[in-house]
Design goal:
single chain, about 500 residues, alpha/beta, Aldehyde Dehydrogenase, Chain A, domain 1, 2 domains, six-stranded mixed sheet, binds nicotinamide-adenine-dinucleotide
């Protein structure tokens, strides 16, 4: 099948200097989840077409890495200004292809802008270290060099922010970049790249390749690719980490999650109910930091669950595209809606109680499902263990804080965890002992901002250096250490490191 003027357009590929339309029989349809309408087609690049994109990124590397970091950072200053100028357009695009509400889309773009602000400060953060006279007359310095061609493979749930977790830092560090966005939400990625070129980025430094497994695996195994940043589900993250490292690349791969929200009996009930609801049902539950398992300690369950059911039941669920009057938009696809709904039957089949059922009749063709609350969930049930990634909050009831903490030890994932309490002791025990990398104390979604690393633990992250913060600079650079000695004319050339007896 090839595209004609009457067919849905293909999303363009950015390879070096030009945007290209690749018409292919292999593509993914991009939906507007609010209406169910197909709005674009994402081409699946072949291995050969993907190789061309890598060649473009490689060709641009020598000039870009020699461009002073101060000039590279200035591109980010201009980029930030353009993002501000196009802020509403970028947010509307996120809502259009993803379905989250406009308020949520604005929050996402804001987080992306912060990554650009962080990258604009890189001249200070890229400075090296020196130690004069580390041995007699010998000076040592360690400096950061870019690693080369970097690749970002991103998920559908943050079409704007997650790409921005990666390329501003990678590019400002002096690397060239290939973004392979989720085939379900490619439009934000394309717009972000267009604005980056408008900000003055030289051709070939930023590239956008589209596709599925073939494109991703070509990038993962290509000898000219140095580093892979991945965000997506745990099985794919693990596979990406294993394949990428096997092929000699550095890999940071963030995976899925099952985030616990512990409610102590002393927690402020009104605030906690709002925070639980925002955490579980914000972005229709499609966030890796979404709370998906409330752990109610002691009498907290009886106090909080009825209020939560009332609060979530009153949420306005509807098409979000162009509509500010909704609290929750659709999920990404119809099959995903069915998958989320299926967990209600699975949970009740395993003996849990569906306290709020999100399966309602919604008018229109959008992929809508309301918030659900499942009570009396046992930790062994599938709904307590598997990532649902939709607006479904499970409630496990326990008697003590210690029991709540132990649940973290049995969890496959380890992204975020939250406690709601007025007790400093409980908060400290939780912070110190819960088995997860991002902790919230009376904060429902403890997602670190640009300046801090996104520290998933266990099978929520594969690799050593996390995304965001100074760890991302370490990831996108490699160090070079130079020892320097300038002997006086006529001075003998004994190796002064040996002579000083400070080791070899
Ligand atoms: P996904 O794993 O299905 O896809 C992510 C990316 O991987 C896409 O670009 C996709 O095209 C690509 N891909 C798919 N199959 C592949 C394969 N076999 N080989 C190589 N690449 C492949 O994830 P998704 O459904 O788009 O996103 C939702 C998931 O992402 C959830 O599990 C969520 O928790 C996770 N997520 C994690 C974080 C985090 O920071 N830990 C952040 C956002 C999302």
């Amino acid at each position: 099948m090839t595209a004609t003027a009457t067919q849905t357009p293909f999303v363009p590929v950015l390879s070096g200097s030009s945007w290209q339309t690749v018409e292919t029989e292999n593509f993914t349809e991009v939906f507007n989840p609010s209406t169910g309408e197909v709005i674009a087609r994402t081409p699946h690049l072949s291995a050969e077409q993907t190789n061309d994109v890598v060649a473009a990124a490689k060709a641009a590397l020598p000039a870009w890495r020699e461009t002073p970091v101060v000039e590279r950072a200035r591109v980010m200053f201009r980029y930030r200004a353009l993002m501000e100028q196009h802020f509403e357009e970028l947010a509307a695009l996120v809502t259009r292809e993803h379905g989250k509400t406009l308020a949520e889309a604005r929050a996402e773009v804001n987080r992306g802008v912060e990554m650009v602000e962080f990258a604009a400060g890189l001249p200070s953060l890229m400075m090296g270290e020196t130690l004069p006279n580390i041995a007699r007359s010998v000076d040592a310095e360690a400096v950061k060099h870019p690693v080369g061609v970097c690749v970002g493979i991103t998920p559908y749930n943050f079409p704007n922010m997650v790409p921005l977790w990666m390329f501003p830092v990678a590019i400002t560090c002096g690397n060239t970049f290939i973004l392979k966005p989720s085939e379900k939400v490619p439009l934000s990625a394309v717009r972000l790249a267009e604005l980056l070129l408008e900000a003055g980025l030289p051709e070939g430094v930023m590239n956008v390749a589209h596709g599925d497994r073939v494109c991703a695996e070509t990038l993962l195994t290509h000898p000219d690719v140095a580093a892979i940043s991945f965000v997506g589900s745990t099985p794919i993250a693990k596979a990406i980490y294993e394949t990428g490292t096997k092929h000699g690349k550095r890999v940071q791969a963030a995976g899925g999650a099952k985030n616990h929200l512990i409610v102590m009996p002393d927690a402020d009930q009104e605030q906690t109910v709002k925070a639980l609801s925002a955490s579980a049902f914000g972005c229709a539950g499609q966030r890796c930091m979404a709370g998906s398992l409330t752990v109610a300690v002691g009498e907290a369950g009886d106090a909080v669950v009825p209020k939560l059911v009332d609060y979530a039941g009153a949420m306005r669920v509807g098409p979000s595209d162009g509509n500010e009057n909704v609290d929750m938009g659709p999920v990404i696809r119809n099959d995903h809606r069915e998958r989320v709904a299926s967990y209600l039957d699975i949970a009740s089949g395993e003996g849990a109680t569906v306290a709020l059922d999100g399966r309602r009749d919604f008018s229109g063709d959008g992929f809508l499902i309301g918030p659900s609350v499942v009570d009396h969930v046992a930790p062994t049930m599938r709904v307590a263990k598997e990532e649902v990634f939709g607006p479904l909050l499970s409630v496990v009831r326990v008697n003590t804080l210690e029991e709540a903490l132990a649940l973290g030890d049995d969890c496959e994932f380890g992204n975020g965890a939250v406690i709601f309490t007025r007790s400093g002791y409980a908060a400290r025990q939780f912070k110190q002992h819960f088995n997860a990398g991002m902790i919230g104390i009376n904060v429902g979604v403890p997602a670190p901002m640009a300046w801090f690393p996104f520290t998933g633990w266990n099978r929520s992250f594969f690799g050593d250096l996390h995304i965001q913060g100074t760890e991302s600079i370490q990831f996108y650079t490699r160090q070079k250490v130079t020892l320097t000695r300038w002997p006086q004319e006529g001075e003998s050339h004994h190796d002064p490191v040996w002579k000083s007896g400070s080791g070899s």
